[in-house]
């Protein structure tokens, strides 16, 4: 599939005519990035936006304690980096590959050269698309904050009280909860599954409330890097090992 055909299905080109999509695709550069590589770092200068064509990208930001917090996972068709593309500001977060990834890169300079040969309507459509992206992410962030507050409304986060999912959407029975504290005590490898379909493997080092009194995990991956992940950002938690236990799911 050519870049133009791929872009047609993305939010970036939702309102564009065929010739506009072709022009945009012609201004983009295809990049191949190996797994676990940095596309750009937090506070790096930036003037390009990216579309994931194959693979996946995690968007992270370092907290005050130096640990990385995962803000989102980008999959094929997703767009990221649009804020710096629009205003030329330093990157507010880092973007790193979770596997070998193919990207379409649109640099601001190449974009402006393209606009010199296109009607003004194309620029307006690009700005509108970027605004939709940012509005959607803000809406999702607000929803997750509300969910996290509701989850923690009965008091502080308790690692011994949180249930772990047993399988594809199957909730653990009350009498057979696998607690997060057990996963920590046994240093068990787990898989976190996110609503967008992404996943991460690692071991839970801590489960705590952050400075806003919202529950979060500290997850260490196989490279010994630690990530801070909000509880509300996770759909399922799957234990990856089988050990003797009184729990039905371990």
Number of helices: 6
The profile of the biggest β sheet is:
9 strands, mixed
CATH superfamily of the largest domain: Jelly Rolls
The unreliable regions are: 144-178, 243-250
Query: What assembly state would you assign to the polypeptide chains in this entry?
Result: single chain
Termini Cα gap: 44 Å
Range of helix content? 25-40%
CATH architecture of the largest domain: Sandwich
What's the gyration radius in Å?
21 Å
Identify the CATH class of the largest domain.
Mainly Beta
Shape: elongated
Roughly what is the average pLDDT, rounded to an integer? 75
CATH topology of the largest domain: Jelly Rolls
Break the fold down into its secondary structure elements and pairings.
Elements: H1 3-8, H2 18-27, E1 29-33, E2 38-40, E3 48-54, E4 57-62, E5 68-74, E6 79-80, H3 82-87, E7 94-97, E8 101-107, H4 108-115, H5 120-151, H6 180-185, E9 189-193, E10 199-209, E11 215-220, E12 226-230, E13 236-239
Parallel strand pairs: 5-12
Antiparallel strand pairs: 1-8, 2-7, 3-6, 3-8, 4-5, 4-7, 9-10, 9-13, 10-11, 11-12
């Amino acid at each position: 599939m050519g870049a133009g055909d791929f872009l047609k299905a993305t939010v970036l080109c939702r309102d564009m005519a065929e010739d506009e999509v072709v022009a945009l695709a012609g201004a983009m550069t295809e990049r191949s990035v190996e797994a676990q590589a940095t596309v750009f770092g937090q506070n790096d200068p930036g003037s390009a936006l990216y579309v994931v064509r194959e693979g996946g990208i995690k968007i992270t930001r370092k907290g005050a304690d130096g640990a990385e917090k995962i803000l989102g996972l980008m999959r094929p068709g997703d767009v990221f980096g649009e804020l710096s593309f629009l205003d030329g500001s330093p990157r507010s977060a880092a973007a790193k590959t979770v596997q070998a990834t193919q990207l379409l890169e649109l640099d601001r300079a190449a974009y402006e050269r393209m606009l010199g040969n296109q009607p003004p309507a194309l620029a307006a459509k690009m700005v509108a698309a970027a605004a939709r992206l940012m509005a959607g992410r803000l809406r999702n962030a607000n929803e997750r904050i509300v969910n996290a507050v509701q989850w923690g409304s009965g008091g502080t986060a308790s690692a011994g009280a949180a249930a772990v999912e047993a399988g594809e959407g199957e909730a653990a029975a009350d009498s057979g909860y696998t607690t997060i504290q057990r996963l920590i005590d046994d240093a068990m490898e787990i898989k976190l599954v996110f609503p967008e379909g992404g996943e991460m493997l690692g071991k839970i080092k801590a489960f705590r409330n952050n400075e806003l009194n919202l529950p979060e995990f500290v997850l260490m991956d196989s490279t010994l890097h630690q990530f801070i992940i909000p509880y509300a950002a996770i759909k399922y938690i799957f234990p990856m090992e089988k050990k003797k236990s009184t729990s039905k799911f371990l």
